[in-house]
Amino acid sequence: MQVEFSNLDPLSLGIDALILFVWSGEHGDHWSSAASAADANLSGELVRLAQEARFNGRPASTLTIPTLGRLPARRIILAGCGSEADFTEEVVSRAVGAAARSARENGAKDIAVALPESTASLDTAAIIEAALIGVRLGLYRFDVYRGKGSPDLQNQPEIASLTLVAPEISENVARSAIARGNAIAAAVNLARDLGNEPASTLTPEHFAQRAHDVAAASNLDIEVLGEAELEALGARAILTVGAGSVNPPRLIRLRYQPDGDTANDKITGLVGKAITFDTGGYSIKPYEGMLDMKGDMAGGAAVLGAMSALRDLACPVPVIGTICVAENMISGTAFRPGDVIEGMNGVTMEILSTDAEGRLVLADGLVDTARRGATEMIDLATLTGAAVVALGNGTTALFASDDELAQKLLGAAEQTGERMWRMPLLAELESKIKGDVADIKNTGGRGGGAITAALFLQHFSEGLPWAHLDIAGSSRQEKAGPTGPKGATGVGVRTLLRYLTT
Ligand code: BES
Ligand code: MN
Ligand code: ZN
């Protein structure tokens, strides 16, 4: 999709669909100036049609109206933005995402968005960036495995061009907002592509290859550790979890260094769980529980996605990325309940369930990241069903040893619209993971399952400020929404990028 910027009158554009903003209010809706101008050009018919259709500007609602030759744009799509008092980047992304999806459903190929004037909280650059992200996320499809004759692709061809129209902003500022929006959306969609890829192709080795591609394109240092190197390092946990698979595990080490020789007192470490498939091992999952387990690498995918955009966004802090990649399978070489593993920092782990494998691979990833010089660490993992029970599917569970880090992450999440809720690291639950024969055991029973998993990880945070994002519920959505289709969401990428770059 070609993206252009224009400061012409949006009503002069000859396109398939023109997206216009409408807010809802207690005293009726409020139309953007471009939307009001379009209504005036159509003799007030737009407002009448909207009223009859009971379109009232509800957030992410849309109404499509053909112009039948009375305007150069062939259709108007009204995009609902909710209350003007709550006009945020998230609202813009969702409104424009919903409208772009609707444009594609109707067969439009060339679309434009008439962006509203800046507000006290949102400047025009932020609006442009949010709108572009909304379009790119909303239109995302995973079509690698669709046949050529697929009705989805035939009936809904790609949108060819997007024109972002804003009268009051310089070309340069608009261009840099577009560059940022492109980088962020590409990063999220990269994480989605990995999450949607079947485990038969996205093996640990293939994941590492994708990381090499990203590192080359984004000028990152990369090192991939295979079995021999993991053995030498003492990364027994990753080796143990991967031992049952014919596809051996990998530890991916990435590093981003900002341009120019800046002195840095802070180095952020990102650590991702990337189980390319989680059968549960000998503690095997039932049919239903195993269905979506190709997505058990979403934490690692979010780390790779975020790392891919750091250079484009001129992130000012150095970032270490660590991705723990393994396939949790069953075979004669697989690990068993009762086995004991010694972590890289000497903490010993007793296996009660081979299905609690994520915390094991992260144990090695966290210690390795701390040793490579991180001054703070954030891990992302599809870690527990208990997090889904606690918060449902749309919300990430945040645990943190450090209040300032927690507040900053919650703030970043709020701004991007990724929902996140802080949960407590209850020290009194520590006794639930005390080991019988080793230091700690890898399950703490049903009660507080997301918390005991986080407490387990804390044993490997090496005393650094540390945050843990349990994305088991939020990494996948069951049905399409304004910012994307059913499947992998790429959650975490936008929050991490916001946290690291502002
Ligand atoms: N990958 C799963 C967690 C998961 C569940 C992710 C649902 C996405 C959706 C993880 O490896 C796991 O199996 N966790 C167990 C831990 C338990 C054995 C202590 C769980 O949550 O049941
Ligand atoms: Mn598991
Ligand atoms: Zn898992």
Q: Segments where pLDDT lies below 50 for 5+ residues?
A: none
Looking at the structure, what is the overall shape? elongated
Fraction of helical residues: 25-40%
Taking Cα atoms only, what radius of gyration do you get, to the nearest Å?
24 Å
Q: What key attributes describe this structure?
A:
502 residues, alpha/beta, eight-stranded mixed sheet, 21% strand, elongated, binds ligand BES, binds manganese (II) ion, binds zinc ion
Describe the protein.
With 502 residues, the chain is of the alpha/beta class. Helix content is 36%, strand content 21%. The strands form four sheets. Strands 8-9-11-10-14-18-15-16 form an eight-stranded mixed sheet, sandwiched between helices. Strands 1, 2, 3, 4, 5, 6 and 7 form a seven-stranded mixed sheet that branches. Strand 2 and strand 3 form a beta hairpin. Helix 4 runs parallel beside helix 6. The longest helix has 26 residues. It is elongated and about 80 Å long. The site of manganese (II) ion has 4 residues, from loops.
